[in-house]
Amino acid sequence: MNNTNYYDVTKWSVGDPYKDIGEVINSIIADIKSKQSDSNINEGGKPGAVIYLPPADYHLKTQVVIDISFLKIVGSGHGFTSSSIRYNVPKDQWSDLHELWPGGSRVLVDIDPDKNDETKAAAFLVSRDGDPRISSVEFSNFCIDGVHFVDDGTGEQNPENTYVNGKTGIYVASAQDSFRISGMGFVYLEHGITIYHADALTIHNNFIAECGNCIELRGWGQASKVTDNLMGAGFKGYSIYAQNFAQLLITANNIFPRGKSTIEFEGVTRSLVSNNILHAFYPGMVILNKNSSENLISSNHFLHDREPWIPMQMHDNGLEDSYGLLSINGNNNSVIGNHFSEIMDKNFLKPLNVVPTIMHLMSGAHNYISNNNVVATETSSGSGDSAFNSQVDALLTTGESKVLDVKTVVVEDESKLNTILDSGTDEQVIMDKSQNAFRATPAI
Question: How does pLDDT run across 407-417, given as a tens digit for each residue?
């Protein structure tokens, strides 16, 4: 490696990385630009650089602004640990804990948010006008920590449970090509990753949890992937949100509960959601909205049950259980070979005594739903003070249970010419069978 293009933040001459790593990285980027000012030297000229963050705690008081291509910012550990669990442990017990804070190569976001400009509250802002689009910026193997949530005026007893602080980990404001975010940790940020106008984006193998929102793909985009991540948003936000996207691959993610939605599309076309583990405490897990069309949803495991952890049981996303775990507003979507587990205490259905809906076609035509299996059982809803223990106990509870009545598929009158095959018995599928094709799952 050419050492002139490799920078260690702890060995740079400008600023103190432990007090303000933003000042240090901005100074390094300025140095890179000064050394790589010619765009055409021997068919090269601007190879970019690597900025390395050794394991340590680095406060960030100055926003990092990235306006060069081929830059990699890399650490030596994503450093995630649950801040939410610790903040809900009484302070007099903190001295007994092995560690209190996230670790690894950890950036602590100390920027004050600006309510009028969300870009100013981002730890890392990527922004560049002109041609070509900024390309091949990479973030790898370090932790971005928002440190604290704040009182949002809703009466939440513990402000650390609000998922609100106005802070963003990575904000990409410009159209870009071939960005990579991998091996990262994001915690206690209101927005983990916000990206506009993505092309050939990779978000892979990250740990994004206890954030108000995890991944937001805004504006428009194409040909990108969100794969192999562990993530889960708060009750006010998205775990994965995409807007006006085509050919988006979402696969092999394990998405934790509590987000107001698990995967939400608006105007997304010709994309694939497959082989994901999806767990939610609220209906509206996967939402295809605003004419999202020609998408394939296949081989996913959906689990809907009740929040078992006492500090969070007061919250929900405002949707009723008739909304559906999967809802579709769009045309020519395929929903094939998914498993749905609806494991609920009838006393906590919303509204009381409602028959829950699993798949809901709200509008559109020519959607194809086939060979989906629904397991719906009643369970006694447990609670606990330990987030880990109560969650695991709930997940491992199986065995003989009373069957819970559900509507496996509901097709509204606004949605016609759909095909529903082997995804519910005649009694479980609710639709106008003169306007849609139907083959029932045989009843035993």
Answer: 999 999 999 99
